[in-house]
Amino acid sequence: TAVDQVIRHKAAFNVGAAVTRNELNSASYANTLKTHYSQITAEYEMKMAHIWNGVNNYNWTNADALVKFAEDNDMEVHGHTLVWYKSFPNWFKNANYDSASFEGHVKTYIETVVGRYKGKIISWDVANEIFLDNGGLRSTDCPVFKTFKDPVAFYGRCYRYAREADPEAKLFYNDYNVVLAGGKRGAMRSMATRFKSEGYPLDGIGDQMHYMETTNRNTIKNGLADMALTGLLIHISELDIRINTGQSDNFVYSTTEQQKHANAYKEIVEAYEAIPQSQKFAISTWGLHDGSTWLTDWWHPKEYPLLFDDKFEKKLTYEGFLNGL
Ligand code: XIL
């Protein structure tokens, strides 16, 4: 039936996309999103630097609008992200708080944000990107590392604050290269074990999966299976696949390239399907259409990483995703 040809209906888990408040003003954007996806993640509007303008000074405008859109259209919201080294606001960093004040303010922040969306946001990335690929803790530019003797215990308490603010929300740890870097995966597993023995809540782990068409698919498949051995929920949280891997301005997105690309999507979805059904949570793409992607904006020439083209037409990658289900 036609319904089986729509990813959000065919999938036995949520299919998400990272979105921005601004783009929802476009009717084609909004229609494409609600037709094909069942979940959204704010690309940046729920990060600390965008919400937290000062102690007792919160800007809810964009986050509220995204949550309202999801409510109006029968979609879930995945919250991203409460504590990320890159998103501490400048006013907070400049204050140079001692560990007690640092934690007191972050606790209030978590309680305020998670509490506001209690029952409306089904899951949160509490901590994002705290480990290096080799399994060490990120130290450079990380305010948490600089403030606490035992940063992992601080993160553990953040999970506890989030749990207390909304006991129903699923709490995730999110990072990149989880399936590709055994060292990082090992560090995450140790953290999960420690959290369990010390009573810090953790429900799931997310792997961003900002990939290239050339990323080895066996490694992805084996890494996902290994992640699943934790018994936690598994989220593919920020999937996009670069095809212009040579970063060339003369790249041609030919039919052959599109087919290769579709196959990459298909095999990643298949690898996700291979983990136990009870651990599947969602696959979320990092953006909706090729006309707007952080890859083009940030450091690459034109890229084509998503399931829809600049005109919101379905691409072969969409068929690849669908066929992987
Ligand atoms: C990126 C967004 O796409 C940009 O628009 C933003 O300004 C910076 O962050 N890992 C993450 C995401 O967890 O939050 C990042 O998103 C991409 C890498």
From TrEMBL:
PANTHER family: BETA-XYLANASE, GLYCOSYL HYDROLASE. SUPFAM superfamilies: (Trans)glycosidases (SSF51445). Keywords: Carbohydrate metabolism, Glycosidase, Hydrolase, Polysaccharide degradation, Signal, Xylan degradation. This is Beta-xylanase. Belongs to the glycosyl hydrolase 10 (cellulase F) family. GO terms for molecular function: endo-1,4-beta-xylanase activity. It comes from the Bacteria. It catalyses: Endohydrolysis of (1->4)-beta-D-xylosidic linkages in xylans. The active site is at E238 (nucleophile). PROSITE patterns: GH10_1, GH10_2, PROKAR_LIPOPROTEIN. It comes from Anditalea andensis. Residues 1-324 form the GH10 domain. It is an enzyme of class 3 (hydrolase).
